[in-house]
Amino acid sequence: MIRILLAEDQAMVRGALSALLGLEPDLEVVGTAADGEAAWRELQRLGPDVLVTDIEMPGLTGLELAQRVQRHGLAVKVVIVTTFARGGFLRRALDAGVQGYLLKDAPAEKLADALRQVHRGGRAIDPQLAVEAWSEADPLNDRERQVLRLAGEGRSANEIAEQLGLSHGTVRNYLSECIGKLGVANRIEAHRLARQKGWL
User: What's the structural domain count of the chain?
Assistant: First the structure.
């Protein structure tokens, strides 16, 4: 029996995925979580074989959750199921040790087969995304990404500086770097382009 923890912030999607996976004779959903921090607590409490997670969630994103799993050396395999068909997300997911990356519009049996494949030690990656992921490299580093994400939420440079424990000047430098690397006119355009490419 493959024990699964399901992390998804939309209750209806979470319920549907849980019900679908529960129909498979060799899959068991042992827990669910509505946000990244809850998923992290459940991971440690339940010790599942596979974590199935969305990318966009409150608290920790699915990618940040995968990075934390990797950093702490947990034995769980991570599979991302998302609506984001963006190569940048896939690249970052693979860097974080994710073994599976599927889109939510894939058939249910494809997800079940992917979970079995990942549990056996293989990978399950959407092939079209895999091609796209290596066509364009992500120019941002982690700190630039963090600053740009907060700027995109409407935070001022002072607020970002305070939240990240940086000086105002350092934040402005990071934003300038992002704008320069992405070849855009301002931080709003930088945020929009980075999100579109899957780099945020």
Answer: 2
